[in-house]
Amino acid sequence: MSIRLEHLNYIYNPGTAYERQALTDINLEIPQGQFVGVIGHTGSGKSTMIQHLNGLIRATSGKLYYEDQNIYDENYDMKKLRSQVGLVFQYPEHQLFEVDVITDVCFGPKNQGFSPEECRKRAKEALELVGFPEKYYEQSPFDLSGGQKRRVAIAGVLAMQPKVLVLDEPTAGLDPRGRDEILDQIALLHEKTGLTVILVSHSMEDIAKYVDRIVVMNQGEKMLDGVPREVFSHYKELEKVGLAAPQVTYIMHALAEKGMKVDTDVTTIQEAADEIMRHFHD
Amino acid sequence: MIRDITIGQYYPANSILHRLDPRVKIVCTLLFLISLFLQKSILGYVVATLFLVIVIRESKVPFKFIVKGLKPIILLLLITVGFNLFLTDGPVVLVKFWIFRITDTGLETAVYMAIRLMYLIIGSSLMTFTTTPNELTDGIEKLLHPLNKIKVPVHEIAMMMSIALRFIPILLEETDKIMKAQIARGADLESGNIIQKAKSMIPILVPLFVSAFRRANDLAMAMESRCYRGGDGRTKMKPLVYKSRDRMAYAAMIVYMVLIVVIGRFVPFHIWIF
Question: What is the ipTM of this complex?
Answer without folding.
Answer: 0.86
